[in-house]
């Protein structure tokens, strides 16, 4: 073949065989480029002209160094070594190509080089799109809901949709000064959420002061909140004492269990929130405090307003943003992650058996996360092995009825049986994969959409 190219190199009249060889090169769909040792282009095929959108007569006879000085085939001439499957970018044409470049020898002398390359610009773009889509998919798998959560909300354990929706609203609300009411049963983590809101706010450098309104007797709550002046009552400290409203100046005041506050105190707290001023007990001078109010309750404040035990005007002051934390029984799928977190806090390397985990996930958890934490502390102490067994669980959890079905004439409802098997399969898959939902859905062989529909259906 090389000898047949000599006529081409010398630009002589080609013989019959040389014409056949050139005809073959002309028919190749990939680009063919031949240069001599002086980097002069002696041949390009029609595919080259078509793909690179340049007439052949404008290329043949010119120096490649003038057209594309960074062309890799120049290195083949320089070194005499081939370059195989080389990805290159032709700057002048904005094309990406993959080329095989081979030196041409005749009588042991280097006479030039040939490059055969294909245009992979569209393939590269497609690969980039696929990569971007994969990155997006991985991002959505990490956070399957509306948006990525910022610190410290992404540290709150739980991927259930009902919790994530609340955290997204809390994340947005934290950036404002709006007063927030957190609702939820005892033990769902209202104080944890209040702390996260403060930490994510512009007031994070200032203190967050917490008051449990149900834990302080009514007669002492006023002095606790607003402070007192010296001599205000028997036993008052010399010089008086600052209250929580003063201590929280510039920061956040968290009033937990506000539904337990007496109507008389509600009126005083309403005035302090509305006008941002108050008087210490036994004092006449108004004091000002710039605070953000976060309240929490496990009571139905709407029913209390109807009964006249909670002030309507205070309700609307504290309820600018309402966050309803779901009970643990409505987000059972988060239980494995919570268990892992509590065991880690105990510096324990123990894990739960499949039977123990299934029982934990079947239990209703009326005390919510706080009850779960106590149960884990119990099992960690009681268990003598690295695997926590069913018998190690607290008696009230171990003896609780589960959703098991015994096949009998009284219980042969096929729909219920199928649902029970589905639920158990999901629980087992989550346990096997360490609560990795992507791996769990793969193990179950169902789509992402179907997986999350079933999590919501079974309150997992």
From TrEMBL:
InterPro entries: AAA+_ATPase, AAA_lid_NorR, Homeodomain-like_sf, HTH_Fis, P-loop_NTPase, PAS, PAS-like_dom_sf, PAS_4. Residues 17-64 form the PAS domain. GO terms for biological process: regulation of DNA-templated transcription. Keywords: ATP-binding, DNA-binding, Nucleotide-binding, Transcription, Transcription regulation. Residues 156-381 form the Sigma-54 factor interaction domain. Transmembrane segments: none annotated. PROSITE patterns: PAS, SIGMA54_INTERACT_1, SIGMA54_INTERACT_2, SIGMA54_INTERACT_3, SIGMA54_INTERACT_4. It comes from the Bacteria. One of its GO terms (molecular function) is ATP binding. The keyword tRNA processing does not apply. It holds the Pfam family Sigma54_activat. This is Sigma 54-interacting transcriptional regulator. The lineage of its organism: Bacteria, Bacillati, Bacillota, Clostridia, Neomoorellales.
């Amino acid at each position: 073949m090389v000898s047949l190219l000599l006529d081409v190199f010398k630009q002589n009249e080609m013989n019959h065989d040389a014409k056949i060889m050139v005809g073959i090169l002309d028919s190749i769909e990939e680009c063919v480029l031949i240069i001599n040792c002086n980097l002069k282009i002696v041949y390009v095929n029609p595919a080259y002209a078509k793909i690179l959108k340049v007439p052949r007569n404008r290329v043949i006879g010119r120096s490649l160094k003038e057209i594309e000085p960074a062309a890799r085939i120049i290195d083949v001439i320089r070194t005499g070594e081939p370059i195989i499957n080389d990805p290159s970018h032709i700057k002048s044409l904005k094309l990406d190509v993959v080329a095989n470049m081979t030196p041409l020898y005749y009588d042991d002398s280097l006479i030039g080089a040939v490059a055969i390359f294909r245009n992979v610009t569209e393939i590269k773009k497609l690969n980039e799109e696929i990569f971007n889509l994969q990155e997006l998919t991985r991002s959505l798998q990490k956070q399957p809901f509306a948006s990525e959560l910022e610190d410290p909300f992404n540290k709150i354990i739980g991927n259930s949709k009902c919790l994530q929706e609340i955290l997204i609203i809390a994340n947005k609300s934290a950036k404002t000064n709006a007063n927030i009411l957190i609702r939820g049963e005892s033990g769902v983590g209202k104080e944890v959420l209040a702390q996260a809101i403060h930490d994510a706010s512009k007031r994070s450098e200032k203190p967050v002061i917490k008051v449990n309104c149900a834990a302080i007797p009514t007669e002492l709550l006023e002095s606790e909140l607003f402070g007192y002046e010296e001599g205000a009552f028997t036993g008052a400290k010399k010089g008086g004492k600052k209250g929580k409203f003063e201590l929280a100046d510039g920061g956040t005041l968290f009033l937990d269990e506000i539904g337990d506050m007496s109507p008389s105190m509600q009126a005083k707290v309403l005035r302090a929130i509305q006008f941002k001023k108050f008087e210490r007990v036994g004092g006449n001078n108004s004091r000002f405090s710039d605070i953000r109010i976060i309240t929490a309750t496990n009571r139905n404040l709407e029913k209390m307003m109807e009964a006249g035990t909670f002030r309507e005007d205070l309700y609307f002051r504290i309820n600018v943003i309402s966050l309803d934390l779901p009970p643990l029984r409505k987000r059972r799928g988060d239980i494995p992650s919570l268990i892992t977190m509590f065991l880690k806090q105990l510096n324990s390397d123990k894990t739960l058996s499949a039977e123990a985990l299934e029982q934990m996930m079947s239990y209703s958890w009326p005390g919510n996360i706080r009850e779960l934490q106590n149960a884990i502390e119990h099992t960690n102490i009681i268990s003598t092995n690295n695997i926590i067994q069913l018998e190690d669980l607290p008696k009230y959890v171990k003896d609780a009825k589960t959703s098991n079905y015994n096949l009998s004439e009284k219980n042969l409802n096929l729909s219920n049986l199928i649902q029970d098997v589905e639920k158990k399969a999901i629980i087992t898959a989550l346990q096997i994969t360490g609560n990795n939902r992507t791996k769990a859905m793969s193990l179950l062989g169902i789509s992402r959409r179907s997986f999350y529909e079933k999590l919501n259906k079974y309150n997992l």
